[in-house]
Design goal:
Order of helices and strands: HEEEHEE
Helix content: 10-25%
Bound molecules: adenosine monophosphate
Oligomer: single chain
Structural class: alpha+beta
Distance between the termini: 32 Å
CATH topology: HIT family, subunit A
CATH superfamily: HIT-like
CATH architecture: 2-Layer Sandwich
CATH class: Alpha Beta
């Protein structure tokens, strides 16, 4: 079964895309937690961060770089990049994704 995010990548489920390349896409979170809340998602289905292999290092680095490019396009100087790994850490979609969150003051530590 394709993941929810693969279905978004394939255009079966609508999304508001802000970035697209041969390795990943980025689209606005449907339930934003801040004025900017974008998800950067690899086309390759990796269930969660701790399932990445050495072969995925370049891809994961690319996701991080795209996160910064999206933040720049959003006009953000300060922003947060989050990966939830596992249900106990808040992961609800089991297709690796990087949250880019900004546009308001962000407290630390997160909940
Ligand atoms: P996580 O809880 O870290 O797995 O993040 C999953 C994120 O996907 C949540 O912030 C959801 O709001 C978001 N989300 C779920 N369904 C959609 C959708 N159809 N389009 C955009 N974002 C979604």
């Amino acid at each position: 079964m394709p993941t929810l995010f693969t279905r978004i990548i394939n255009g079966e489920i609508p999304s508001t895309k802000v970035w697209e390349d041969d390795r990943c896409i980025a689209f606005r979170d449907i339930n934003p937690t801040a004025p900017t809340h974008v998800l950067v998602v690899p086309r390759q289905e990796i269930t969660r961060l701790d399932q990445m292999t050495e072969a995925d290092e370049g891809l994961v680095g690319h996701l991080m770089r795209v996160a910064t490019l999206v933040a720049r396009e959003e006009g953000l100087n300060d922003f947060r990049v989050v990966v939830n790994n596992g249900a106990g850490a808040g992961q609800s979609v089991f297709h690796l994704h990087v949250h880019v969150i900004g546009g308001r003051s962000l407290s630390w530590p997160p909940g």
